[in-house]
Amino acid sequence: MKTDDLIAALAADTAPTDAGTLRRSAGLALIPAALLVLAGVILSLGLRPDLMVAMGGPTFWAKAAYTAALACAGFWLLDRAGRPGADVHVPLAVFGAVVVIAILSGAVSLMTTPEAARVEALMGQSARVCPTNIAGLSLLAAPLILFAVRGFAPLRPALAGAAAGLMLGGLAATLYGLHCPEHTAAFVAVWYTMGMAIPVVVGAVIGRWVWRW
Prior knowledge:
- The protein has 213 residues and is mainly α.
- The chain has one domain.
- It is 75% helix and 0% strand.
- The protein has helices at 3-12, 19-45, 51-54, 58-81, 89-111, 118-123, 130-148, 157-176, 185-210.
- The longest helix has 27 residues, at 19-45.
- The two termini are 15 Å apart.
């Protein structure tokens, strides 16, 4: 019998995992994780000086809506991927739809920007550090989340790890917006997405170790 078949057979004989308990464990861990990331933003990067003014405009909230939506999609996907037999297709579809909408919005925004200003709209002032800042902030909270979800029993550990990374990346990117002054759709679609992709990849790798059978 192949290893994958054995795992599937064991999962089939296992009583259904209490979804509420797992979801509550991961959800509660997000509170200290968010506080830790927020402390990292304030102490290591600093809040943007025009934060109160920026919060009065739509671009600040549009950026936050994108990153928060991916954090929620990651939480949803982790909840499903962490329980044997749970369907993951819907959260995966939501995740894909959110990313596609962001990319299309960024592309349309860039095409409608005057040619002379396109490089600035795409690169802003912090393209080189944005992805690494988001990834670094997500790593601050990673131990808290991984400890909270250690009781999950995913059939696909890499997918569960990627979901945890997406949740962390979305959380970190949302709070990073309190520091980052960039606001163009093109910048967010490229560099914020890249920053969130890093913990997704790292999470997929770590997931194989955290939930090894």
